[in-house]
Amino acid sequence: MDEYKDKDLSEQSGGTGDRSSVSADTESRGAELVTNQEQMQKAAEASQKPVIAEEKEIGSSAEPASGPVGLDIGSSNIIVAQSRRDRIHLVKQLNAFFTVPKSKFAERILAKNEVMYFESEGQFYIYGNAADNFANMFNANSRRPVREGILSASEEEGVHVLQAVTGSIIKKPKNFGETLCFAIPGEPLNGTGSVVYHESMIKTFLGKMGYTPISINEGMAIVMSELGDDDYTGIGISMGGGMCNICLSYLSYPVITYSIQEAGDYIDTMAGMSVGVSATRVKSQKEAELDLSREPRDRITAALQVFYESLIHKLLESLQRIFNSTDQIPKISRPIPIVLSGGTAMPKGCREGFEKALKTIKLPVEISTVRLASDPLNTTAKGALIMAMAESQ
Description:
five-stranded mixed β-sheet
């Protein structure tokens, strides 16, 4: 019940889309699968709730969880989602850190301003939303415990930072063993890092916090959040900070899942290198004012447009190559939607640019529409929460 078995499911179903041909053993596997009408109804009801999101405020305390939890551990942010009667409540914290030398003066200043940090080997590790403020102050880049969607092998304190950031927005559950569903990336194409190790480390510390952790593919979380009215059939694409995650789902079964390790961070880094500024500065300008439907107004926005086009091209090339090289795709009788989500998909003109470029490739399935998720930044966390609710006892 811990991880995706999409290839096995596709092979056992014969690629026909006939759910009656799936064996009883297959039906019992995969925490991400909604396997009965009651669970489908629960997921559908949760997906209709309005979302209320907030950033973690400096000095505020995390609350213990009551009920199932959805968790999005992204390269840029960590987001916790919980169901609160008539709404879904989300809290976000920046998944980054910045180090400064340990000193009594610095310690007093950090404590006075309620900045979150921990000490390790003569350094203060400032984490969360304050990390970018310090990075900008020193004209440097903040550091990430998760790089290109997976725990960074070059950050020795990466797991410690991840625990600290997560612990700043959610505490131990009120009831031991509460179900928590967290999103994991698909296996990267020609990428680096281990999804297995990434998933295992997260499960370990969440288990120690008192949760029963299960995982869901990030692209499938998009499907769960956005495609209930389409019988959970379509393509979910999460364009995040470190990765683009892709999932082709048929009737809630993830037929194809994979990722490419280029996304928002790739755009920021390449644009920054091209014009000689930090990636942190590029990211700030991108999030504040980028409009891909307009002519660029300066060197930074010009560079951003160039690398957005590059990313969209690489993403669509991968779709064409993977989808056309497999016999696992079922026969789908109607055109299916594509849903884009994630912070990288949010700038004006991104959806339109993707839709225009889509016309230049050929896929073995017909596409009906290209949609932007209703709440792109929070779609993954919402989808993970829907799965946690469906899987909780």
